Amino acid sequence: MSGDADLLVIPLTPSIISEGLFGVETMPLQSGPMTGLALHRHDMGQIFSLAAGLCVIEHATERVSVPPGRIGWIPPGVPHAALNHGDIAGWAAYLDPRLCGMLPPRPCALECSPLVPPIMERLLALAGHADIRNGPAASESPGRTVLSEAAIRARKRRLVAVLLDELGEVSPVLTHLPFPRDARFSPVVQALINDPSDARQVREWARLAMMSERTFSRLFSRETGMTFDRWRRRVRLMRGRELLAEGVPVKEAAWGVGYENVSAFIAGFRSIFGTTPGRVAKQKAGGTA
Predict the structure, then answer these.
(1) Helix or strand or coil: residue 190?
(2) 45-59, 148-162, 196-210, 213-227: which has the minimum mean pLDDT?
(3) Would you tell me how many other CB atoms lie within 10 Å of the CB of residue 233?
(4) Which residues contact 42 (CB under 8 A, 6 or more apart)?
(5) Can you give the pLDDT at residue 285?
(6) Is 145 a residue whose pLDDT tops 80?
(7) Rounded to whole angstroms, what are the CA distances from 242 to 35, 133, 145?
(8) Which residue has the higher pLDDT, 284 or 104?
(9) Vertex 191 angle, CA 243 and 104, to 5°
(10) Which CATH number fits domain 4-167: 3.30.70.3270, 2.60.120.10, 2.40.70.10, 3.40.50.720?
(11) DSSP 3-state assignment of 4?
């Protein structure tokens, strides 16, 4: 990743400052495929969740994949890059740094409490409409009640309190890709991220890192917490999920990341993501996952 000289800094927004009572600013997310932001950081924390597409967050120590049904979390001040795969739809919220202490200190994907999506939908509605009506069909009801500004602010306070309580209970989902810290591994990591199907043997990768095969394997396991072969499988499966989010069929995705046996791709995918490539592809096509 680039140095601080190339870093885009996104400061605290005026609404975060002016609504310090709430400390949360919400917004809908929508963008086309292969969009994102180069290296940048926020002065505030960011949570987001997707109904469609896939977002990949990369920072100094790892790569994090955030699919639909999870919450993406980026702490205040952490340099990171983001890339979207497929058509993105969902929501995001920026949190005042004072509200972020209960969340992890590094970017990650979090489990999503069933309460968080409806809370966010309501906060989005309150943020976007000054005349929020009571009830699901209030806009069609002649006796609808228009909330006052004070009532809207009171509702926001209550919703934010529940949101923060829910966020304090969720756990990280361990589907990230850790990066080894030793700079000698950098060309290996970059080569496999660029082309997960690269089938070079461990001895060839060790030569690229200017190490003996034994030293390469030992250091890689120590710095990432997994063997090189397991790490490479995770690179392939994460890239496979990105391809599925872009609409690539399951077989082509498997072959594209280096699997000759599609059944092995499906089994590995299920073991990492807890679902099958077919279900992800169906979700992309507009079915139910």
Answers:
(1) helix
(2) 148-162
(3) 21
(4) 10, 74, 76, 77, 94
(5) 64
(6) no
(7) 13, 39, 45
(8) 104
(9) 70
(10) 2.60.120.10
(11) helix
Annotation: CATH topology of 181-284: Arc Repressor Mutant, subunit A (1.10.10)
**Single-letter residue type at 96:** D
Distance CA 48, CA 103 (A): 13
Question: 218 vs 89, 125, 179, CA distance in Å?
Answer: 42, 53, 15
Question: For position 10, what pLDDT does the model report?
Answer: 55
Percent of the chain clearing pLDDT 70 (strictly above): 82
**Whole-structure pTM value:** 0.81
Query: Do residues 197 and 258 touch, judged by C-beta distance below 8 A?
Result: yes
Average pLDDT, the chain: 84
**Domain ranges (residues) in the chain:** 4-167, 181-284
On whether the CB atoms of residues 177 and 63 are closer than 8 A, the answer is yes
What's the whole-number mean pLDDT along residues 233-253? Answer: 95
Band of pLDDT at residue 289, cut at 50, 70 and 90: very low
Instruction: Give the helix, strand, coil percentages of the chain, each rounded to 5.
Output: 40, 25, 35
Which two three-digit tokens encode residue 274? Answer: 């807890």
Side chain identity, residue 194: N
Most confident of 5-14, 111-120, 138-147, 150-159: 111-120
Roughly what angle, to the nearest 10 degrees, separates helices 228-245 and 186-194? 30
The three-state DSSP-derived secondary structure of 208-249 is HCCCCHHHHHHHHHHHHCCCHHHHHHHHHHHHHHHHHHCCCC
